[in-house]
Design brief:
CATH architecture of the largest domain in chain A: 2-Layer Sandwich
Strand content of chain A: 15-25%
Number of helices of chain A: 10
CATH topology of the largest domain in chain B: Aldehyde Oxidoreductase, domain 4
Structural class of chain A: alpha+beta
Strand order of the largest sheet of chain B: 4-6-2-13-10-11-12
Helix content of chain B: 25-40%
Number of strands of chain A: 11
Oligomer: heterotrimer
Shape of chain B: globular
Radius of gyration of chain A: 18 Å
CATH architecture of the largest domain in chain B: 2-Layer Sandwich
Structural class of chain B: alpha+beta
Number of helices of chain B: 20
Number of domains of chain B: 4
Chains: A alpha+beta, B alpha+beta, C alpha+beta
Distance between the termini of chain B: 48 Å
Largest interface: B-C, 60 and 61 residues
Largest sheet of chain A: 5 strands, antiparallel
CATH superfamily of the largest domain in chain B: Aldehyde oxidase/xanthine dehydrogenase, molybdopterin binding domain
Strand order of the largest sheet of chain A: 1-2-7-3-4
């Protein structure tokens, strides 16, 4: 299934993937809408990653999505690559998977057999593995709106700017003090952390993240990821909380 | 010798221009020394660069290669039948075909270390070519590679160059009987005596890992065999083909006269296309095998895994002896270099380092031991610096350690040991000389330009705030214009002892007055050969440099040439062009004196013509002289022949033969520039990431031909060195498979990862070269690894860190910060 | 894989109708089928950006897109920049003036990527924003500094020519701005 092709075509070129057929969905009408529906942000399967940076509604109400999108690839690849494709590809370093989990996104999945919805929090099964079955396609991703005034922050380290994340932390904090934290590359799937305590106690993060199971690959070792994850988590939560404070109505 | 004019300061273009014009006037030159736009640029800017993959010949087929997935394995069998049956496939070839029809690839290495275009019997590194497919298009050729079935018998892999030296280690080349290709200790001076007498010694184990030049344009060639004449034409983006095309002919088993190498512009080299012979030979052979023109362009994976041009991969055990007053006395160096599976340049990369092993310092005694070891990795070749960048990093690391041991300021320690301006030409312990220099002036200029005191205050203030700022200040010399003795002086009884590395130029003024210069080695590859030629011609004839036409001879028509490499081209081509120009000018003067009835000595070249000095109405345009030279024989002086052309071959102007006992390696790299860099970084010790706060560089490359392009070379080289220092590294797994064989994981510096530099040029002309030029293409990369090591070490001062290996990764920094004072080993 | 499909693409203002294999990349289509050799392929995997062209005005990787996907759309390549007589445009002139190219291999992609930036952000001379815009194009020769200077010089000229007022809002934060 070909939408943006920024990951799939790479795989074809590496000859790691040799499909007998490739279906280009770019011609299907109605999949390219990004809009607010019933309080949710509805992102069609053909919405490019760059749209998440350009859309004023996203900037206003889903700041975490925008923050995360800023770390995805390069401008040229963001103009082709899609949000849905990034989730379906499920690379362990994919920033948008963290945002989807943190924001409790719902995926609308379609196949010849019918349609179903699945929470992003249930969707990821491992690096490159998802709950998507044969013949299934994500047609839309829906994001519930965070509470007004929610602050968000995304922190990432990579070898160079915009390389694959060595570690990343997506955080958002609502004005009433509810926090979400999702880390990348410290587990086989986006790693959601219960941060209720961490928001009140500074050293709680280190305790909380004491026993991760980070990836170990050519970009970074597990031990580096273990060391840096709490740092990014702390910084992301701090920034998100500060922004929530700033955004909160007086 | 005139010393000390300054110009080209990046941030003050107006000041730089005035300084340049003033200096040009002082030197009496109009064009050599002027910042000018490159004449190569317009075609490149229009996308008309005509790189190798842009060339299409009628009936051309395309080749792809099957790479070995094993680092070391016997090839048991290869089944090509399925691949051969794929529609569009023309021919599938294997090592058996190579063994039957071709000779091994050329090599300067000693002993039975044989490399073939396609592995014969066994593969010795991951990615080595096992089979080739020639097909109607590249897509089909790659499809067919997938259909080739190879049975391998994996052999034990040897990757660690220390383990490789053991008696029981698996052999990379059985016939060699050992993985140690070469060992030797050179001793220059009384090293043991100096170490015994010195008041202090620092010793360090240092590791520099393999990386590569990684041009954007990979190696490529098109072979075109003409059965009628028997001539094999090879279009290739290989540099220096004139120097070795006869060796390619040897591999193809054809007479050199039947080989025509046509130079094609390269999209970058950085050394990796120097003596690049495998790909052109391969394309020529494929064309002979198929009777079709065949294009072979390395894809990125082939280039990374099998380009034969990795940089050094060294382990040093190095010592520096010095006294309490800071006097540096002697160096003792033991180096294990992991050359990989083959040894095409012998140990030339260490010969190179020996040309400036003492750097800019008065160190009088040196011992240098080398163990050149073979392992199952992609072999070394040339990479900007050719080994001297590594030895400079090693030396500057030792000097920083000495300063720390003495509690002496690092700059002060260096300053005390700099060779003084009145000591040139300076003979170094190895026998090589440094022609000229004013090292303290370069240092002073840097400290002023970089506002050193300000940054020291900033660093100290940051430290009190718990931030980690670090300053690096390092020096380097930059040897230029190699002599070929560096490839063989290692051996007592070398098989082949070349001493020539010439460059040639032909200069013709055609009947219309157009000046055409033909060069006899590789075309443009990122340097500015045509602009340099245009400037020299403009200087000699006083013509508009943009009017000069530059062409390139193919190997059947080429005069002796060596090509760019070892920062030699600008010096050598200037000498060749100036030589040809002098002959043509003499003839013009004879003709003009005859026709104007003037004295030759009163004539001067001016504004596209020749005229009697002081009487501009007594004048002939060059076009008039040219037309009569070609068409009006009877208007010429009686002893002159028709035509207006000359050719000139310029040899290395200062090179001597090594002594029999090799206690004196002779003069082999004598035009020596000098540079200082200063960098300020801030380190985030929690993530290991760096930010550049400041970067300044001052280089002295003798007379600057074109300040703008020289600045470009310095910045580009510096940023390449940044990659080597911070992330570039070949990363093999335990089985010797390359883990970063694409740009997905082999990272090159991007626009957001690099500092903005301030660059200034100091000029101490060489007394031995045309116009006093020294080569300068490699200098930047000679400093960055040393300066980033120093700056990061300074930033991490509270943790007692010692940077002893590269790249300095975020992982390493975080580990250091987590475990203070454990910084010696990785 | 040999069956071919028709495709119509507008390239540099001219319509082309060709039949191509579905797997043919846009880069190969431009280079081999249309003979526009100014688009250069360096890594083939979408990491280096040397193959960037403008698709409907926006830079994309031509090595990661199939030619058939460009059907009915408009492509601009480096060949569109200079005048028909070869006269360099303002950006090309700035590149030579600032020595923003050495080997020239990444130059077409760099020019096109900068072109889009200058169209969408006229007058923006901020080095950081320029570096972000060209971050997806790898240059191995220059170290980028002179490229940034060339683009900024054109932006400066835009300011003067059009009396553009420069907004000073900070750009989107990029990776590793983690403090």
């Amino acid at each position: 299934m070909l939408a943006g092709g920024q990951s799939l075509v790479q795989l074809l070129k590496f000859r790691r993937c040799r499909p007998s057929a490739l279906v280009d969905i770019n011609g299907i009408p109605g999949l390219d809408a990004i809009e607010r529906r019933d309080g949710e942000l509805h992102v069609g399967a053909l919405v490019r990653q760059q749209a998440l940076l350009d859309d004023p509604q996203v900037a206003e109400s889903w700041p975490l999505l925008r923050e995360a999108a800023g770390f995805v690839g390069y401008p040229e690849t963001r103009r082709r690559g899609t949000l849905a494709g990034s989730l379906a590809f499920a690379a362990p370093w994919a920033e948008l998977t963290a945002a989807a989990v943190a924001l409790d996104a719902q995926l609308d999945i379609c196949s010849a057999a019918g349609q179903r919805s699945l929470a992003a929090r249930e969707f990821f099964r491992g690096p490159g593995e998802t709950a998507l079955g044969d013949g299934e396609l994500i047609v839309a991703v829906r994001f519930p709106a965070p509470a007004p005034g929610t602050g968000a922050a995304f922190h990432e380290v990579s070898v160079r700017h915009r390389d694959y994340a060595q570690v990343a932390a997506a955080a958002q904090v609502s004005p009433d003090g509810h926090g979400e934290l999702v880390l990348l590359c410290v587990a086989p799937t986006p790693h959601r952390v219960d941060v209720s305590e961490a928001l009140t106690r500074d050293d709680a993060i280190a305790d909380l993240l004491g026993r991760l199971d980070p990836l170990d690959d050519v970009e970074a070792s597990a031990s580096y990821r273990q060391r840096v994850a709490p740092v990014l988590a702390r910084r992301a939560l701090r920034d998100a909380a500060e922004r929530a404070h700033r955004r909160a109505p007086a | 010798m005139s010393v000390g004019r300054l110009e080209g300061i990046e941030q003050h273009p107006a000041a730089a221009r005035i300084a340049t014009e003033t200096a040009l006037k002082e030197a009496g030159r109009r064009w050599v020394g002027k910042s000018m736009n490159r004449v190569e640029d317009p075609r490149l800017l229009r996308g008309e660069g005509r790189y190798i993959d842009d060339i299409t010949l009628p009936g051309m087929a395309h080749a792809a290669v099957l790479r070995s997935p094993h680092a070391h394995a016997r090839i048991v069998s290869i089944d090509i039948s399925r691949a051969e049956r794929l529609p569009g496939v023309i021919k599938v070839l294997t090592g058996a075909d190579v063994a039957a029809t071709a000779a091994p690839l050329p090599s300067f290495g000693a002993g039975p270390i044989i490399q073939d275009m396609i592995a014969v019997e066994k593969v010795r590194h991951y990615g080595e070519t096992v089979a080739a497919v020639v097909a109607e298009d590249r897509y089909i050729a790659e499809d067919a590679c997938d259909l080739i079935e190879v049975q391998y018998e994996p052999l034990p892999v040897v990757l660690d160059p220390f383990a490789a030296q053991r008696e029981d280690a698996p052999r990379v080349h059985e016939k060699l009987g050992s993985n140690v290709a070469y060992e030797r200790t050179f001793t220059f001076g009384d090293v043991d005596g100096e170490f015994a007498a010195a008041e202090h010694v620092v010793r360090a184990e240092l590791n520099w890992p393999r990386s590569t030049g990684m041009p954007m344009d990979t190696n490529g060639a098109i072979g075109d065999y003409d059965r009628g004449t028997g001539v094999v034409t090879i279009y290739a983006n290989s540099m220096s083909f004139t120097y070795f095309h006869w060796l390619i002919a040897g591999s193809l088993k054809i007479p050199a006269s039947k080989l025509k190498v046509v130079p094609v512009a390269a999209g970058g080299s950085f050394g990796s296309k120097f003596f690049m012979h495998k790909v052109p030979t391969f394309a020529g052979w494929l064309s002979m095998a198929t009777g079709r023109p065949v294009k072979f362009i390395e894809d990125r994976i082939t280039h990374i895994a099998s380009n034969d041009h990795c940089g050094s991969d060294r382990f040093y055990d190095a010592e520096l002896a010095f006294d309490a007053d800071g006097t540096l006395r002697a160096l003792r160096i033991d180096c294990v270099d992991d050359y990989g599976a083959y040894l095409q340049f012998g140990t030339g990369t260490h010969g190179n380092g020996l040309s400036q092993i003492v750097g800019p310092y008065r160190i009088g005694h040196v011992q240098y031991s080398l163990h050149a070891v073979l392992t199952n990795k992609n072999q070394q070749g040339a990479y900007r610096g050719f080994g001297a960048e590594v030895s400079n990093w090693m030396l500057e690391r030792l000097v920083d350690m000495a300063a720390r041991e003495l509690g002496m300021d690092r700059i002060e320690l260096r300053r005390r040991n700099l060779i003084a301006p009145d000591q040139f030409p300076y003979r170094t312990p190895t026998g090589n000389i440094y022609d000229s220099g004013n090292y303290p002036a370069v240092l002073d200029r840097l400290l002023e330009l970089a506002d050193y005191e300000h940054w020291v205050a900033e660093r100290d203030k940051a430290r009190t705030e718990g931030r980690h700022l670090g300053i690096g200040v390092v020096a380097s010399n930059e040897r230029s214009v190699f002599s070929s003795t560096e490839f063989w002086f290692w051996f007592d009884q070398p098989d082949f002892t070349p001493t020539a590395s010439p460059e040639s130029a032909s200069l013709q003024i055609d009947p219309t007055g157009q000046i055409v210069v033909t060069l006899h080695s590789q075309a443009q590859w990122g340097n500015s050969p045509e602009t340099v030629v245009a400037q020299v011609v403009a200087e000699e004839f006083d013509v508009d440099p943009t009017s000069v036409v530059v062409t390139y001879a193919d190997s059947q028509h080429a005069l002796p040439g060596t090509g760019p490499g070892g920062s030699r081209y600008t010096v050598m081509v200037s000498g060749a062009v100036a030589g040809a120009a002098t002959q043509v000018k003499e003839k013009i003067k004879r003709i003009a004196a005859h026709q104007l009835e003037a004295n030759e000595n009163d004539l001067q070249f001016r504004d596209g013509g020749i005229e009697v000095a002081g009487s501009p109405d007594q004048r002939l345009a060059l076009a008039d002289v040219a037309l009569s030279a070609y068409m009006f024989r009877l208007d010429l002086p009686a002893d002159l022949e028709s035509g207006l052309a000359a050719q000139s071959t310029y040899d290395h102007p200062l090179t001597t033969v090594p002594s029999e006992d090799r206690s004196d390696l002779g003069i082999f790299y004598p035009f020596v520039g000098h540079a200082w860099h200063l960098a300020v970084v801030e380190v985030d010790v929690e993530t290991g990431k760096l930010e550049f706060l400041h970067y300044c560089a001052v280089h002295d490359a003798g007379t600057v031909v074109n300040p703008k392009t020289l600045t470009g070379q310095i910045i580009g080289g510096t940023i390449q060195g940044l990659g080597s220092a911070l992330y570039e590294e070949y990363r093999y797994d335990e089985q010797g498979r390359l883990r970063n064989e694409t740009f997905e994981h082999y990272h090159l510096p991007s626009s957001l990862d690099v500092p903005t530099m301030t660059v200034a040029h100091q000029e101490t002309p060489s007394p031995y070269t045309p116009y006093g030029i020294k080569g300068a293409g490699e200098g930047g990369r000679m400093l960055t690894p040393a300066i980033l090591s120093a700056a990061i070490e300074d930033a991490l001062e509270p943790y007692g860190v010692r940077v002893t290996s590269l790249p300095i990764t975020a992982e390493q920094i975080v580990a250091w910060a987590a475990a203070p004072a454990g910084g010696d080993a990785r | 894989m040999s069956q071919r499909v028709p495709v119509h693409v507008e390239v540099n203002g001219r319509g082309y109708d060709r039949e191509v294999e579905p797997r043919r990349t846009l880069a190969d289509f431009l280079r081999e089928d249309l003979g526009l050799k100014g688009t250069h392929v360096a890594c083939e995997h979408g990491f280096c950006g040397n193959c960037n062209v403008l698709l409907d005005g926006a830079a994309i990787r031509s090595c990661l897109m199939f030619a058939v996907q460009a059907g009915g759309r408009s492509v601009e390549t480096v060949e569109s920049l200079a005048g028909s007589d070869g006269e360099l445009d303002e950006l090309q002139l700035a590149f030579t003036e600032h020595h923003a190219l050495q080997c020239g291999f990444c130059t077409p992609a760099m020019l096109l990527t900068a072109k889009q930036f200058l169209r969408e952000n006229p007058g923006v001379t901020d080095a950081r924003r320029i570096r972000e815009a060209i971050n997806g194009v790898i240059c191995r020769c220059t170290g980028y500094q002179q490229i940034v200077a060339a683009i900024a010089a054109v932006a400066q000229a835009q300011q003067t020519a059009h009396s553009i007022r420069i907004e000073t809002a900070p750009p989107v934060r990029v990776a590793q701005d983690t403090r």
